[in-house]
């Protein structure tokens, strides 16, 4: 806690003064973020750092496993964040960002790890489809590290499908007023892969070219085994 308090003191004394005008404007005019990013709560994954976004530029929703529960009538924090971002803030892009070495995805592969955490186990039911896809469509001899990586990638695609069940998102998709993106952050290398729905695989970001659109196509693995190496 001491380090956090020192950080606050440093922010107030060394960082905030240089950006005071920006914060004043944001306080007076409100936020106008470019995109909603749904990412994992993993402390190693920092959306603003990865995208080099400043205050007011990125609306972030973080949870264990970067999960988007399918829409239901029950209130939920993730669903509320999505609805607010789309309806109130008018974001035109939604990003679901998974990552390597994800503890939630390891829990899917090793359910015994979740026995002391019943709430986490229940939450991860929204990712069971990703586990099933990897079990059925990937080589049985895939090493565990690559298997967990593949589950994390497939989970991004599963959550993109769940996004489409939310009325606010579905309405904007129907009028081409919103675009969905799937990203995968490699902690070790700093690389960000993007999901190409046409090719049904994750690819490198190429500068000066439009990002692929996450239009899913069923019938074969979304993430080819070589992408999980």
Automatic annotation (TrEMBL):
The lineage of its organism: Bacteria, Pseudomonadati, Pseudomonadota, Alphaproteobacteria, Hyphomicrobiales. Belongs to the beta-class carbonic anhydrase family. PANTHER family: CARBONIC ANHYDRASE. This is Carbonic anhydrase. SUPFAM superfamilies: beta-carbonic anhydrase, cab. CDD domains: beta_CA_cladeB. Binds 1 zinc ion per subunit. GO terms for molecular function: carbonate dehydratase activity; zinc ion binding. Pfam families: Pro_CA. Zn(2+) binds at residues 40, 42, 99, 102. It is an enzyme of class 4 (lyase). Its cofactor is Zn(2+). Reversible hydration of carbon dioxide. One of its GO terms (biological process) is carbon utilization. Keywords: Lyase, Metal-binding, Zinc. Its EC number is 4.2.1.1. It catalyses: hydrogencarbonate + H(+) = CO2 + H2O. PROSITE patterns: PROK_CO2_ANHYDRASE_1, PROK_CO2_ANHYDRASE_2.
């Amino acid at each position: 806690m001491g380090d956090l308090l020192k950080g606050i003191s440093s922010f107030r004394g060394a960082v905030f003064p240089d950006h005071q005008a920006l914060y004043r404007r944001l306080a007076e005019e409100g936020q106008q973020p470019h995109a909603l990013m749904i990412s994992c709560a993993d402390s190693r994954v920092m959306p603003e750092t990865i995208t080099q976004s400043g205050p007011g530029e990125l609306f972030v929703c973080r949870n264990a496993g970067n999960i988007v529960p399918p829409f239901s009538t029950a209130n939920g924090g993730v669903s509320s964040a999505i609805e607010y971002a789309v309806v109130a803030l008018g974001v035109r892009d939604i990003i679901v960002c998974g990552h390597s070495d994800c503890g939630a995805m390891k829990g899917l592969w090793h359910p015994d790890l979740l026995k002391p955490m019943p709430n986490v186990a229940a939450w991860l039911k929204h990712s069971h489809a990703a586990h099933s896809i990897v079990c059925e469509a990937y080589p049985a001899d895939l090493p565990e590290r690559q298997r967990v990586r593949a589950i994390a990638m497939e989970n991004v695609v599963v959550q993109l499908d769940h996004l489409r069940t939310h009325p606010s998102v579905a309405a904007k998709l129907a009028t081409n007023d919103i675009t969905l993106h799937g990203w995968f952050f490699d902690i070790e290398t700093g690389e960000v892969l993007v999901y190409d729905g046409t090719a049904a695989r994750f690819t490198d970001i190429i500068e000066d070219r439009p990002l692929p659109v996450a239009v899913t196509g069923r019938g074969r693995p979304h993430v080819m085994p070589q992408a999980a190496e």
